[in-house]
Design brief:
Layout: H1 6-17, H2 19-46, H3 50-82, E1 87-88, E2 91-92, H4 97-105, H5 112-121, H6 123-133, H7 138-141, H8 151-173, H9 187-214, H10 218-221, H11 233-237
Antiparallel strand pairs: 1-2
Helix pairs in contact: 1-2, 2-3, 2-8, 3-6, 3-9, 5-8
């Protein structure tokens, strides 16, 4: 198996497609891989067994909800960006439309239909981004109009985006691209496991503190079990 660095891949694309198009191919491929990673995290944490959400909420309900919104909204916004036109108001967009253009310039037309199917599958997700994330439409914000997208629609959009990029590489670069990020450890699972253990430990520590206080061991009861660097009340209340 051949292994290449990030810079080596970028240089190869620049050689094959030219500096500008090589940059676009490289950036778009990596962006789709990152898109998949973010949505995988969202699905694992918030769309699996209810117990996973309970672990997050037990640690910090506000933080858990903030992460949920960030992962979901950023994924939807990136679907919107990736499916932009080649240019808007004379400015070049870093969008999948360039992969279609590159394939056409090379005389390969088999990506035309998949690209149209891709845009169709992203329609509701794009509209939701336009009305609620990229912009704030007053009528939608006030509830006078409704634009929504659900997990299934966003998942389908991401699958179509992934399939399109894989097809581009198969036809243009003759490479079977695996876009799903592979990490050395199961990051989401490891994070949740450690959070679960932390929650369990917190319950045990609280019980022990209560026992010490009842026994009159006030020094132990009020001694912090956390390192100083974990606390910074001034920063939390005034981070700016």
């Amino acid at each position: 198996m051949t292994t290449r660095t990030h810079d080596e891949i970028a240089a190869e694309y620049a050689k094959d497609f030219g500096e500008a198009d090589g940059f676009l191919v490289h950036r778009l491929t990596n962006s789709v891989s990152q898109l998949i990673l973010q949505w995988r995290m969202f699905l694992f944490f918030y769309c699996g067994p209810l117990e996973r959400i309970e672990v997050l909420n037990e640690a910090s309900g506000l933080t858990a909800r903030t992460f949920q919104n960030l992962l979901r909204d950023n994924t939807i916004l990136n679907v919107r960006r990736l499916t932009d036109r080649e240019k808007s108001r004379g400015e070049i967009n870093v969008s999948l439309a360039h992969l279609l253009r590159i394939s056409r310039e090379k005389g390969i037309a088999c990506l035309d239909v998949p690209y149209e199917e891709l845009l169709s599958s992203c329609e509701t997700t794009r509209r939701y981004a336009d009305k609620h994330i990229a912009h704030s439409d007053f009528d939608h914000a006030a509830g006078r109009k409704i634009s929504s997208t659900n997990r299934g629609e966003t998942t389908k959009a991401i699958k179509e985006i992934s399939s399109f990029v894989q097809l581009f590489h198969k036809k243009i670069t003759d490479v079977s691209y695996e876009l799903v990020p592979r990490t050395s450890v199961s990051d989401e699972q490891q994070f949740l496991k450690r959070l679960y253990l932390g929650n369990q430990s917190s319950v045990e520590q609280t019980s022990e503190k209560i026992r010490q206080a009842k026994a009159g061991d006030w020094d132990s009861a009020f001694q912090s079990i956390y390192p100083d660097w974990l606390s910074d009340d001034h920063f939390r209340d005034n981070p700016f």
